[in-house]
Amino acid sequence: MNSGYLSLILLSITMILFASGWKDLYVRRISHKGMLLFFVSWLVLSRLAITVRHVHVQLVYVEVFLISLGILYATRGFIHKLHLLSIGLLLGSLHFLLQQLLEMDPILIVRNSQWDIALLLAMVVVILQRKASDQIAALSIGYLLGDMYQAGIHPVNGYHQLGNAMFQDQWWLSVFAARTVTIIVQAAYQGCRSAIRNWMERKGGWRK
Fold this sequence. Notes:
3-stranded mixed sheet, 7 helices
């Protein structure tokens, strides 16, 4: 599959899920108008780019930057903001490290190097954060930094490219996987908790 198609597929799946009533599970606080604006702007900005000297920036990179900036601004507490920034820095460094490792030793690749990295980052952020906005902010900061590191070391045709199709695919895959896994884990936890509670209640009733 060519780069760029995965992000469009996941965007379409997300739109269908949200239209089916799953929005509150994935991103509760954002309104339907806000999500629609995000989807439309992504489709438009992913096709637009600007070049400043030797830096070629796909405008969707700017959108991800604004998303992370907006979440950080809305986050309460300086310590919490600093915590999200530190996780984003960790993910950015991990993104760059994994990219270099897989380039040096392709035998580590399971399916697709970019997809493997995206899924690994999603699992890391699921372990570190549960809240949707925190996960999205941390992943966004991580990808912004990771893409910047990668573009600085590996220019393409003399240009440092930011926010390309590969960046878009990875961002979407990580965010979608992180939110989906979090929802599944939370549902499993609630199910087990309810089952244990019912069992304890029935056990207490039998003793009486």
